[in-house]
Design goal:
By secondary structure, this protein is of the alpha+beta class. It has helices spanning 5-24, 53-62, 75-81; strands at 29-32, 43-48, 68-70, 86-90. The chain has 3 helices and 4 strands, in the order αββαβαβ.
């Protein structure tokens, strides 16, 4: 069966929209980046008021969720938005909403 890149791209967009929306519902979590209506890659960067991104990535890893944490080679951007670090989820076809 040929999945096709168009279907993969549509699925990535669906997952990213879902994750952004759900993260915005969590008290103390701020999603960084453009609104949902702006086309982006299937990446979602976010910060949490209550825990450092490195600790958050460890806690999520213990639950089977992998995210990256740190500067992501964009320290000037972090400085511009008032954060020294962030967590970032990278979504693809092997991810799901669970």
């Amino acid at each position: 069966m040929n999945i096709g890149m168009d279907r993969i791209h549509a699925y990535e967009k669906e997952l990213a929209y879902y994750l952004r929306r759900r993260l915005c519902e969590v008290d103390g979590v701020k999603v960084l980046g453009p609104n949902e209506d702006v086309p982006t890659a299937a990446l979602v960067s976010f910060v949490c008021d209550y825990v450092h991104a490195s600790d958050l990535s460890t806690f999520l890893d213990m639950e089977g969720v992998a995210v990256r944490a740190g500067h992501h080679c964009c320290q000037p951007l972090h400085k511009a938005v008032g954060h020294s670090h962030s967590a970032r989820a990278s979504l693809y076809i092997y991810n799901n909403k669970e």
